[in-house]
Design a protein that fits this description.
globular; alpha+beta; 34% helix
Length: 321
C-alpha cells in the first residue's frame, strides 16, 4: 500500500511538472521566439499603402549585444557608456530591442505621401517611446512632417506616429505624365523574416513620388542622370522587394528583386537599377563602408545581390564598445 502511494505521488508530480514545462515553454515561445518573425502592423495599413519598410531589430539582437559594453547588459540606464562620447546614451534598450519598427507610406493625395511609423516593443524592455521622443528622431527624419513630436500608445507595447511628406510640383507632373490613370492598389507584401524588408507597389508611380519627396536626402546618393532614367522607366516597373539579413559578423547580405511590366523592358530597367546601386555603393564608400553588387535577369525580373560591410567599427564606437 505504501509502495502504491509513492508510485501515485510520483506520477502526479510528473504530470504537474510536465504541465508546467509545457506552459512555460509555450509562454517562452509566445513572448520571445514567435515574435522574432512576422509583422504586427497589418491592422493599421491604409488601403492605398504603396511602400512598406520593415526592420526587425530582434533578429540581430545577439550580434548587437555582443558589440555593446559588458556592463550595459547588467546595469540598466547607464547615463554615459564612454567618456569619449559627448552625449548621454541610454543602453538598456540595446539588449531588448523592439520586435519591429516600420515605415508605411500611402498615396493619400497627389501632392503628398502619408507616413505611419510603427513600433512593436519588446515585452521585457522599458518603454521605447522615451528613447524616440528624447533622441531627436522627429528632427532627424525630415523631410517628413510629423503630426506630433511624441510617440502615441496604440495598444499594449505598440507605439505609432503619423505624418506626411510633400511631393514637389515637378515630380507631381512627372507622375501624372508617366502614370496618367490611377488604379486601386494592394499593399505590397512583406513577411518579417529578415532584419530589413522593403516592398514597393509602383503601379501608380510611387517611385517618382519617393524620388521627389526625399530629393534632399537622396541628392548626395543618386546622380541626376540616374534619377532621370529611373523616372522615365517608371511605367516599366511594377514593383520591387528588398531584403537584408546578417550573414556573419560585419556582413549584411542584400537581395533586391525588381518586377518589370514585361521581359522586353527588363534589360533597360536592369541598367538603370544597377546605376542606382553603383551610386549607392560610391556613397557608402565615401562614408567609410563597403558595398558590392552583382546582378542578373530572370524573365521580367531584375535581381540584385549586394554585400554591405565595414559597419561594425562604427556601431561599436557609437555604443562605447
Amino acid at each position: 500500500m505504501h509502495i502504491r502511494f509513492e508510485k501515485q505521488t510520483a506520477l502526479l508530480l510528473l504530470v504537474i511538472f510536465s504541465v508546467f514545462l509545457c506552459l512555460g515553454g509555450g509562454a517562452y515561445y509566445y513572448f520571445f521566439i514567435a515574435p522574432r518573425y512576422g509583422i504586427y502592423h497589418e491592422d493599421l495599413l491604409a488601403p492605398d499603402t504603396a511602400l512598406r519598410v520593415v526592420f526587425k531589430p530582434v533578429l540581430v539582437q545577439k550580434y548587437i549585444s555582443s558589440l555593446a559594453p559588458a556592463g550595459s547588459s547588467l546595469i540598466p540606464g547607464i547615463p554615459k557608456v564612454s567618456s569619449m562620447q559627448q552625449m548621454h546614451f541610454r543602453t538598456e534598450w540595446i539588449h531588448k530591442m523592439p520586435f519591429e519598427f516600420s515605415f508605411l507610406l500611402d498615396q493619400r493625395a497627389s501632392d503628398q505621401l502619408g507616413v505611419l511609423f510603427f513600433v512593436k516593443e519588446h515585452p521585457a524592455s522599458e518603454s521605447f517611446s522615451e528613447l524616440v521622443d528624447d533622441g531627436g528622431f522627429f528632427r532627424a527624419t525630415r523631410p517628413i512632417v510629423w503630426d506630433q513630436n511624441r510617440m502615441s500608445r496604440y495598444a499594449v507595447r505598440t507605439l505609432t506616429a503619423t505624418g506626411s511628406v510633400l511631393i514637389p510640383r515637378t515630380y507631381q507632373e512627372e507622375t501624372a505624365k508617366h502614370h496618367p490613370v490611377y488604379s486601386p492598389l494592394t499593399p505590397p507584401e512583406v513577411k518579417g523574416h529578415h532584419f530589413l524588408e522593403a516592398a514597393l507597389n509602383n503601379k501608380n508611380g510611387t517611385l517618382i513620388e519617393l524620388l521627389g519627396a526625399f530629393s534632399a536626402p537622396l541628392r548626395p546618393i543618386l546622380s541626376t542622370d540616374t534619377e532621370k532614367t529611373l523616372i522615365s522607366l517608371s511605367p516599366n516597373i511594377e514593383g520591387a522587394f528588398l531584403k537584408a539579413f546578417l550573414s556573419e559578423a560585419d556582413l549584411l547580405l542584400i537581395e533586391v528583386t525588381v518586377e518589370c511590366s514585361d521581359s522586353s523592358s527588363a534589360e533597360e530597367v536592369s541598367k538603370a537599377v544597377l546605376a542606382a546601386a553603383y551610386d549607392t555603393a560610391a556613397f557608402a564608400k565615401r562614408e567609410g563602408f563597403a558595398l558590392y553588387w552583382d546582378s542578373d535577369i530572370e524573365d521580367n525580373h531584375v535581381l540584385l545581390t549586394g554585400e554591405f560591410s565595414d559597419f561594425e567599427p562604427k556601431i561599436r564606437r557609437a555604443m562605447g564598445g
